[in-house]
Automatic annotation (TrEMBL):
Organism, as annotated: Helicobacter ibis
Domain of life: Bacteria
Name of the protein in question: Cache domain-containing protein
Length: 142
């Protein structure tokens, strides 16, 4: 495709009759570049150093602003397993963790690819704590 790298995921689902017998299979090809464009859109970023990424239920990086990390496991990228444990326990919320010596908050939510399909991805949005608290420090100093 015009010498562009294209990242896609194929998701299939069986169609069963009332007797639970296989009648057909329906599938969709998800263009991860389109998802990437959406989550890295400047309008959806609240902080200057906000980093968003999407991972599979097994921790494999699907979408990341650093394309070299795509396909790698989060456990291999960051030894702080708080995000991985949060996801493994099917939790949604905010977790604090450290990466490259920086304390961060990570907002974690599930990303349902398709209704009634077991494929679950997780969207993670990371912001350095210092950046979150900067407005409070500014008010405190005035």
């Amino acid at each position: 495709m015009d010498n562009q790298r294209v990242f896609v995921v194929d998701i299939t689902r069986p169609i069963l009759n009332r007797k639970k017998e296989l009648m057909a299979v329906v599938g969709v090809v998800v263009d991860l570049n389109e998802i990437s464009n959406s989550i890295f859109n400047a309008k959806s970023v609240a902080y200057a150093n906000n980093r968003n990424f999407m991972i599979t239920e097994n921790g494999v990086m699907l979408v990341n602003s650093n394309s070299e990390l795509v396909g790698k496991n989060l456990k291999d990228i960051n030894k702080d397993e708080k995000i991985t444990e949060f996801i493994k326990n099917n939790e949604i919320g905010i977790v604090d963790y450290s990466y490259n010596g920086v304390d961060n908050y990570a907002g974690i939510t599930e990303y349902r690819v398709w209704k009634d399909v077991d494929t679950e991805w997780t969207l993670v949005s990371v912001v350095p704590k210092d950046e979150v608290y900067a407005p409070l420090v500014s008010v405190e100093r005035s």
